[in-house]
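hey can u check if this looks right to u? its 339 residues, i copy pasted from the old doc so theres a chance i mangled smth
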Amino acid sequence: MVESNPPLLHEYSQILRHSKQDCAVQSNIVSDKYDGSSECELPLIDLRYLKSENEEERACCIEEIARASSQWGFFQVVNHGISLQLLDKMRSEQIKLFNAPFENKASCGLLNNSYRWGTPTATCPHQFSWSEAFHIPLTKISEEECYGQFTSLREVMMECASAMQELSKLLAGVLLTNLGHRMELFDEICDESTCFLRLNHYPPCPISLELFGLVPHTDSDFLTILHQDEHVSGLQLMKDGKWVSVKPNKDALVVNIGDLFQAWSNDVYKSVEHKVIANSRKERFSVAYFLCPSYDSIIGSCKQPSRYKTFTFREYRNKTQHDVKLTGHKVGLPRFLLD
């Protein structure tokens, strides 16, 4: 059997060998992932109406965004202002980057040493992600020394990050307005040092269709902008207690609500669990932008009575990271419930 780049097969085999729950875990994974999940088309929202001179059209677009954020936690946007040519360039640069030898990606200081692969905290197979990624803070994207031999990546990364940042703040502002807050609030609390661009690669998984490309999770941010692979599906989300597969749309970007927005909106908007399914034959690429506040920003519910304790982004990150290190999985918002 051919080893993958990175050595995911070796890492998985080590976890499998030391896991005391092999049979139970494998059984749970099968029943979870092959539950007859159907393919869905997320709510599709045309953002050109946000700039319409017709007040009714603008209001309708805002209502669609708010409704999708409440009922799905996910939606798609078209006419979003990010050129498809730029996204195609980003994919081409990603392919070159991830095709580099594992030793180069892991040891040469690429992109602020932000390379990640597999799941270092996994103690059993169902906690393991068959994927690799670069998770880069916005503050590092412009630094030439981060790119090594991949000099053509820098300009594309900078343009892509800037465009996704602008779009994320526009959508966050719309959702804030719907809650009765000023659109400009995110300009005041969001910090480039905590916002990230993540380049994802899901290599073919030759050993089992039972593995995750990315384990089930929610995002620990305000919202996420995702350009998913238009050729290979894999994204699934939890809807009405069932996993549903998201049908790729080459013209659309996927937007999802994060934990912080759910807490801030007092559960008006939903941070929904999602995952990526491994593919046995095809590789998959995606780019995600995470809109985050500064570490000391206070996250409190905008409506009373609040369901959540008041906390800072730093406290939230520290707690979720501690839980993952301790138990292998993220607990998230339930840790901060008042009741």
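Confidence is low (pLDDT under 50) at residues 22-36.
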